[in-house]
Design goal:
- This protein is mainly beta and 589 residues long.
- It is built from three helices and 47 strands.
- Strands 1-33-34-35-36 form a five-stranded mixed sheet.
- Strand 11 and strand 12 form a beta hairpin.
Length: 589
Amino acid sequence: MRLKTVFFVASLVATGVWSAVVPTNAQVKVTQYHNNASRDGLYIDSAFTQSAAANLARDLNFDGTIAGVVYGQPLYIEGGANGPMIIAVTESNNVYALNAVNGSIVWQRNVGAAVPANDISCSNVDPMGINSTPVIDLASRALFLDAMVTPDGGATIKHYIISLNVDTGAIKPGWPVDVGLTALYNGTSFTAATQSQRPALGIVGNILYVAYGSMDDCSLYHGWLVGVPINNPANVTAWATSALGGGIWGIGGVASDGTYPYITTGNTVNTGGVWGGGEAVIRFQPGPIFSGQPSDYWAPTNWLQLDTNNWDLGGSGPLLVDVPGATPSHLVVAMGKDGQAYLLNRDNLGGISAPLASFLVNNDGNKQAAATYRTNQGTHVAFRGANARISAFLINPSSPPSITPNIWTAGQSGCASPFVTSTDGTNNMVVWSVGASATSDHKLHGYEGDTGVVIYAGGGANETMTGTHSYSTTGIAARGRIYVATDNKIYAFKVPGGTPDAPSNLVATAVSSTRINLAWRDNSNNETKFQIWRKVAGGTFSNLVTVNANVTSYADMGLTSATTYKYKVRAKNTAGFSAFSNIATATTP
């Protein structure tokens, strides 16, 4: 970082006019697992050219220290009073908001005592607390998560669905929801001690959906989908498999096309050959309400054999894909532990029937969350091939659509679930995977999206991570950075160039009835200007003034006495704007 010039620039100085590279109020956000409700895992960021990706390096100035085992993906938000933040959760039931530039803690909250493994049947996580990826509703500035808690050292076990103010960590009024007391379906009650909550949460419309599976197939359990209106948490709706088993456990969790939630279920037991909700892709009406009609579910004709072999279809959550030129074009990709990839008609799933297409793409089974992207070559699905490779297949735009398997495969020991970056949604595709097992190098790896050629081979010793987890660990991309959440640590990696880092530590001080002094921290070394925005109480933010690079203070003069003013600052360069800083407030005497 360059030394920054510290001086006041009077508001009487004429301001310059910029030509916007991005929309003036554009915000970057990662509010859910794999970035989008379809669970495509695609992040569009103009900084991630393939040449820039090849030079990715860990930001050693990013702290990122947290406490607890981490299985969930981090989230990223802007637009609040604290500036850009990373949200992370741990099995110790700790929830963190970190400054997205330097990794310092903005706020943290423990939401209850996590449950010791000795008090849970078959748990391989100790303790068990927040096991999945939360979801954020930006309109209400609310973070939603599920936590397994015990108020008495393990004798009583509960699942709480919790909503926190994402800017402060405070629990929202009306929450938490005690799932064991509120979830009931056709006479089946929810037993918190036997249900795990691994799938990512989702919001469709104004309803939060939380799915549940088993503790490694131990004890009596069902697959559950619980719906909680985010503005009326007392009105809980639930669905459960009619058969025992059928857990919903794929880490991608609840997918959506914007209207309906979709889930996949795993193996059921003691069915007597009568299908009871397992080994299926299910589409729900809002609620969740399951119609039971064949158009709203699909199970393979050999579902009973999958049950017998423990080949859960639910090893990978539903991936919603649109394929232009295909008939039908609205698809669901399902990938189970039998190694098959299935293509389904999203508008008419078909009941217990043959899929539109299927292909054995992975001899070692599928436990992961796949990603999808489109290039000039076609529509790709990238997936984790067991624990040793990343592969991709093509979905062909035919009638019906078909699969071209293994268009590329890249060996990577201990690979985790992939995610994808692109500069514009079509070009510069890079498929990323974290080395995440005892046999891996615990580094990020990047592959060219059309060919699988290595773009980024992991970097040096500084880029090594610790505390990764098999198929669960995955990254996100935001503003030229990749963030990865691991045990006790959030890592940040950065490509060269790109937009500047956001300013931070903005302070506003009223020094007279007509003047407020501003000061901020400059976190970037590539800005060309700073833009200062101001809002008078009751109004909206607007651009006040532009100042030069390296300036870290400003005097706003000619103000009105006894008036409250709010300020925020962002940096600019030829690539575009940074996120805004925190919001600072001062009132003139």
